[in-house]
Design goal:
11 strands, mainly beta, seven-stranded mixed β-sheet
Length: about 120
């Protein structure tokens, strides 16, 4: 199985920046799609962005132009978050789909954006 550990969350002011990381270990391969999700306080878990092994990326419109998803050769996933809004506050989760479409999740990391 795949093990995922998020890090980098914290407190930042509106308009600021923050970088999240996700370390993948276990039976992890570069062919697996990796993604970021978030869950706002009292709200739903929502998809933010994903990246394929070939570098293809997809973003929801809410974060397009502000967030950048990337991965390295060791399958470390990164989310560069710029121009943060209070609406970005929530728990951010790393996600992986393996070859059998089994889904793995990290424990989450808290992001709080204040004004």
């Amino acid at each position: 199985q795949v093990h995922l550990v998020e890090s980098g969350g914290g407190l930042v002011q509106v308009g600021g920046s923050l970088t999240l990381s996700c370390a993948a270990s276990g039976s992890m391969y570069s062919s697996y799609v990796m993604a970021w999700y978030r869950q706002r306080p009292g709200g739903q878990r929502e998809f933010i962005a994903n990246i394929a092994g070939n570098g293809y990326t997809y973003y929801i419109n809410d974060v397009k132009g502000r967030f950048t998803i990337s991965r390295d050769k060791a399958n470390k996933l990164t989310l560069q978050m710029n121009n943060l809004k209070t609406e970005d506050t929530g728990v951010y989760f790393c996600n992986v789909d393996d070859e059998d479409d089994f889904v793995y999740w990290g424990q989450g990391t808290q992001v709080t954006v204040s004004s």
